[in-house]
Design goal:
With 152 residues, the protein is of the alpha+beta class. 30% of the residues lie in helices and 28% in strands. The protein has one domain: 2-Layer Sandwich (60s Ribosomal Protein L30, Chain: A), CATH 3.30.1330. The relative contact order is 0.25.
Length: 152
């Protein structure tokens, strides 16, 4: 089954990738690796999840925020590669969580992204990961995701 078929089965439609909000490009490809710039939980052109996880957002909302960031990252990757079927491995996932003081469950929030990547890519979606708490994120986003992927 193709990745687009898998996404359709999951009722996921990749959005049009957001234009960069600064002096960077969404994806850099080099030596069959794609480096995807930080993606926020934007849906329909608007930030869907804002505020600190652990006070203003629940862990479950943080997980949904992280998943939405991955959807946006996959949209950028798809636009760059022309098809997600050329992805041979998700190498690394970086999850930044806008964390309330004392919040230490960043790994639980990151699972929203990790589980989704496994669901979409199967074993090719298994990856190394870092989940970090941040005092603030751009636009007060609840999460931000960075992905490195290999492709053929």
């Amino acid at each position: 089954m193709s990745i687009s078929d898998t996404l359709a089965t999951l009722s996921i439609t990749l959005p049009t990738p957001a234009a960069p909000a600064g002096a960077y490009i969404p994806v850099v490809t080099y030596n069959n690796c794609a480096y995807i710039s930080g993606q926020l939980p934007i849906e329909g052109g608007k930030l869907k999840y804002t505020g600190k996880v652990g006070s203003e957002q629940s862990i479950e909302n943080g997980q949904q925020s992280a998943k939405l960031c991955v959807i946006n990252a996959l949209a950028a990757l798809n636009a760059e590669l022309g098809s997600l079927d050329s992805v041979t491995r998700i190498i690394k996932l970086e999850v930044y969580v806008n964390s309330a003081a004392g919040f230490t469950d960043q790994a639980q929030v990151a699972n929203g992204a990790s589980n989704f990547l496994k669901e979409v890519f199967g074993d090719k979606g298994l990856h190394t990961r870092v989940a970090l708490g941040a005092a603030e994120l751009p636009l007060n986003a609840a999460t931000e995701i960075v992905i490195t992927a290999a492709y053929k």
